Amino acid sequence: MPIEINRKLSQMIITQQQQLSAAIPPRIKSQWAALPARDRSALKILIAVLVLALFYLFLWQPVIEKVKAKQQWQTSQEERIERAQLAAYDRLNRFGMIDPMPVDLWLKMELPQYRLSLILHKASNNPKQPSQLQLRYSDARQAQAFLVLFSRFSQLSQVQVDQSKRTIALDYRLNADYAELIQ
Question: Which end of the chain is more exposed for a tag (fewer CB within 10 A), N or C?
Fold first, then answer.
């Protein structure tokens, strides 16, 4: 079986050589035959080097450049994702949340978790004027935890606690960097 494959392969090579020989014009054949053996060997080596150089220039190099460009693009995407994650962690550390949201929405979301109810919220559009907030609490520790969280992105002032009514009234100003993020 392997002998038969070798025979078929050698016949194919001979056929290819004959077809190539038939494609070469007779004038070039006669000039080739007139060349000394040393010159023919040098030309064969030159043609082989030329074929390798063309293969490198037109096939190999463009593929390598595309691979490098893809790797650079992938690296830039990974760096972009890493920067976004670091920014999200920074917001989480600074404000207690990854996606800053307007205070009224944040209050609606957070107050039930701390068992607080909203009595009054007057948000000021002017950053120099404080906003007002009044809350009713059922657990003083939960209210304290809420105030600590709220103070991460706002400056609390005039905090008044009425223990008999279980209410907290305070004025606050949003930190400038938080206010920029939610606008």
Answer: N
